[in-house]
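User: Is it possible to get a 3D structure for a protein together with its bound compound? The compound here is glutamine. I've pasted both below.
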Amino acid sequence: MADTKYIFVVGGVMSGVGKGVASSSIGKILQMNGLGVSAIKIDPYVNVDAGTMNPTEHGEVFVMDDGTECDQDMGNYERFLDRDFDARNYMTTGSIYLDVIQKERNLEYKGKFVSVVPYIPLEVIGRIERASKKDHADVVITEIGGTVGEYENILFLEAVRMLKFKHPENVLLVLVSYLPTQGSEGELKTKPTQHAVRSLHSAGIHPDVIIARADVALDKKRKEKIAFHCSIDGKSVISAPNVESIYEVPINFEKERLGDVLMEKLNIRTRKKKKDGEWRAFVRNIRRSTKEVRIGIVGKYFATGDFVLTDSYISVIESIKHAAYKEKRKPIIEWLDAEEFDKKNKGYRTSLKKLEKLDGIIVPGGFGSRGIEGKIQAVKYCREHNIPYLGLCYGMQMMVVEFARNVAKIKEAHTTEINAKTPNPVIDVLPEQKELLSKKNYGGTMRLGAYPARLQKGTIAGDAYGKPRISERHRHRYEVNPKYIKRIERAGLIFSGASPDRRLMEIAELPREKHPFFVGSQFHPEFKSRPLNPHPLFRELVKAGIKRREGTGTKKK
Ligand code: GLN
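Assistant: Yes, that's possible. Here is the predicted structure of the complex:
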């Protein structure tokens, strides 16, 4: 294709209605039409990246191969488009200003007066063009965080205006707008969408497509109303009702012929045959999966007031789903508050018994002390009661602490993250990191992004991956302390995956004869699971869960 095409996605009315999924789905349908698609997320906050944000504030911090800590929408793009992105696909107000200021300091503007407009929007456009080149994209989808009319994304809308003005034939604007319902009949209201379009006008731009998010499908009358009041042709108003699974969204968009609308408007002609068979089969599988598999997640980031912030663990949840669908199971996810299992809590024994009813347990990543003893109790219960267990990062570290304390009899074993004075720091920062920390150099002390590991043949992990060398994504500061590895191994835990120099322990597991599935990884496998290609560790957890459910697994002790 001669020119790269740019699709911008903005939100109207309110946030949290699935703009990320809509953007990913637009990418997916274009990809199914044989186009090379890249995706970019722009977040309007001042944080340079998502690394310093609390998950309860912001949702999960997603990590890409190059170690970029970013918004969870990048995870959606990677999952839907089945490709890896990097820092160049993600920007925030903070990162843009940082670059512009740095360039000014380096005299790169050659003595010019560097004003916010046009230099900030120009930096945004430059980044989008660079990402497009890097990804060899025919089409780049850029999602602008927040909603139109907010002070913080004005400069991004200005970037859209500039690019659209320069290349009207190559730039398209999609507004994802929410239609609330009113009254007992649940009438869909279009007025907020009209206001959102007016806000766009004040930024000098007009939407080409409106995706109408609502609880239900849009009727003809409502479609016509939006088309008329927003000056947009009827076929460009796309109905996007709630769906059972986000993976159905591209298929629903196709029912509305969104792919054709986008390609026609951007003047894209492709003779390639549609490649949507696998995705359609996958979605059919989701609908047909009726038998259940129940997985519990022991965490803490969801206990904020009355809300269960499942956003904090979105990649873990999606990974469970991918694995369950592959096995034709309907995943039921239960949230277990780690603090309930703490011995300090009177009813902790009764709470632990709840684990029995589940087919598998996950202790996901985390930081800090809240809920830690509860997590350790949950690990112990899973180990002693043969409940399939998968520990992710902190969940692996807690598995090692529990095993060290209760099986290897290493007194008061702990991680120095919680108890700096423990006589037995089985989880600790490495000496070279300690030096950085002593200088308060926190930024450089996390192991971030992709690192290689070697797997031991014949182990659960070795067989799950079916290859000796893997690469997985990390985000942590602490490691299994090399001084304790031999003692822990002698007591029966296997470190079946390690860095190629065997300094860093990557996977721990109990042998199959001892436990049906007791595995932990220092890395985050959830960042690499894809709908059509579930992650091997999640898949094995789900398989072990199904065996337990159907009574074909190892019997209770
Ligand atoms: N808090 C632990 C560490 O820093 C684990 C981090 C995580 O689970 N991502 O090592």
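The two ends are 63 Å apart (CA to CA). Residues 365-367, 393-394, 417, 475-478 surround glutamine (CB under 6 Å).
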